[in-house]
Design goal:
- The protein is mostly helical.
- The protein has a single domain, classed as Orthogonal Bundle (Hydantoin permease).
- The protein contains 13 helices and no strands.
- Belongs to the amino acid-polyamine-organocation (APC) superfamily. Spore germination protein (SGP) (TC 2.A.3.9) family.
- It holds the Pfam family Spore_permease.
- Its main location: membrane.
């Protein structure tokens, strides 16, 4: 564990940027159609519950990383194996995020550029930042948050003032009953983006105000869920349900309608910067988690140098996980939530927390005797 400290404010910013990072680009919950925003709000509620579970595990040993805590809860052999499994999981998710943003850049700006080159440019920035440590990543997030907020606020005002929003596209609310919403929650929005908050348990020990961690985390998740639901509601009300589902990147399609309304030209370029900024923070957190895990498991003397190898592996993985964007999206919708996210975000953490609870109770009984 490196000697670093971040403030509760920086944690707040990191969580919001992390949650909005790729979920603004690849919208979750679209199977609920016009009720996708409700599915996101319901997923937010589930995310709050998951954060409380992860916070409980963090409290088991607030001064240790999640990897080190797993050694203490599960024992060294099993803890090592489970930690290594999470390293693979974090690397895989980082590769998927990198692929998302690489495809976005190719589709929207550089269609004739090789994917590996674009992804290489994106991962290089992440490698440089993560190599400097968690404090630099947190300060970068704090700085970029202000820029993202200003550009997003301007975009929201332009969309509203241009008269593109058609509220009737959101009607009827729950027109198909609660079934599609619940299906979207338990197959999409609970896992992406809110279940991915598990990786941030590795950052919690660095917060210099441990008593504020719980309140900060819950408020950041709630706010990010509201902002994401608002974004989805605007996309649907501007594009309509059908176009919103067909569009690869609905937010960019929404912004491009302002150009179509002859209000401004090429505003989508600025929003690409916003999206890439969020993706940079999210990838940075996952890459940091992989690097820190490898340094603990293999007792590396210079962990910062391992980030280069981690970055190259994630870069190559991002290009090889799917042959095209359609296959990549299909895999992310049908395979990843059930077979990857469910065990790694809910089942395993719940089992580990139960074991931690049992050990705490056993230690208390031993102390009494």
């Amino acid at each position: 564990m490196e000697k670093a400290k971040i403030s509760a404010k920086q944690l707040f910013v990191l969580i919001i940027l992390f949650e909005l990072g790729s979920s603004l680009l690849v919208i979750p919950g679209q199977s609920a159609e016009q009720d996708a925003w409700i599915a996101i709000l319901a997923g937010t509620a589930g995310g709050l519950v998951l954060f409380l579970m992860h916070h409980y595990f963090y409290q088991f040993d607030p001064k240790s990383t999640a990897y080190e805590s797993m050694f203490k809860v599960l024992g060294k052999p099993i803890g090592w194996a489970v930690s290594f499994l999470y390293i693979i999981y974090y690397a895989y998710i980082a590769a998927r995020i990198l692929r998302d943003f690489g495809e976005m850049v190719l589709t929207s700006a550089y269609p004739n550029t090789p994917l590996l080159f674009v992804n290489g440019m994106l991962i290089a920035v992440c490698i440089y930042t993560v190599r400097k440590g968690i404090e630099v990543l947190a300060r970068a997030g704090e700085f970029l948050f202000g820029i993202m907020f200003v550009i997003s606020a301007i975009g929201f005002i332009l969309i509203v003032s241009s008269g593109l929003i058609k509220p009737y596209e959101l009607m009827p609310v729950l027109g198909n009953g609660p079934g599609p919403v619940l299906h979207a929650v338990f197959t999409q929005t609970l896992f992406f983006p809110f279940g991915e908050i598990i990786v941030l348990t590795l950052i919690l020990p660095y917060v210099n105000e441990p008593k504020k961690v719980k309140k900060t985390g819950l408020s950041a998740i709630a706010i990010s869920g509201f902002l994401l639901a608002l974004n989805v509601a605007i996309n649907i009300s501007v594009l309509g349900v059908d176009l919103n589902k067909r569009s690869r990147f609905p937010l960019l399609s929404t912004i491009q309608t302002i150009q179509g309304a002859e209000f401004l030209d090429r505003l989508d370029v600025f929003f690409m910067l916003v999206l890439v900024t969020g993706g940079f923070i999210k990838m940075g957190v996952f890459i940091y988690a992989v690097t820190e895990g490898l340094s603990i498991l293999f007792k590396l003397k210079k962990p910062s140098k391992a980030v280069h190898v981690v970055g190259i592996v994630i870069l190559l993985l991002s290009a090889s996980i799917a042959s095209n964007i359609s296959e990549h999206i299909k895999e992310g919708i049908s395979f990843v939530p059930v077979y990857v996210h469910l065990p790694m975000q809910i089942i395993l953490p719940a089992l580990i927390c139960l074991i931690a609870l049992a050990k705490k109770r056993k230690n208390k009984k031993s102390a009494k005797h």
